[in-house]
Amino acid sequence: MFLAKLFGGLEDMPELKGIQSVEIMTVSNECSDNRQKEIKKQIASLSDDAEYTTLISIKGEEDKVRLMARQENDMIKELLFVVLEKEDDSVVIRIKGKMNLSDVQSMIEKGEISKN
After folding, report:
1. What is the three-class DSSP state of 25?
2. Fewer CB within 10 Å, N- or C-terminus of the chain?
3. What distances in angstroms separate CA 53 from CA 35, 40, 42, 56, 98, one per listed residue?
4. What is the pTM of this model?
């Protein structure tokens, strides 16, 4: 509920009510080159397995973005947003809670920025 209040309340985004926690992890250029390469290699090696499935995967010239989910029955218990950038910081955002797929789709749609 606290998280929903930060984003304007449940009236604007009722999908947030199922989120229990958010963790943001970054790999910055401040790490040693070897350490940074090792961490990025581990992040890049994340793949579909018995626990996680990829919902969206986007590859650009300079970066890769992947949205992965861990489900139990029809509920998504955990989302991983993985952003690997060739030159800049890489980021993993981990969201835990109880969400259904339509909640996730709605959050993505509401988060889109239109280009004018």
Report:
1. strand
2. C
3. 27, 19, 17, 9, 16
4. 0.72
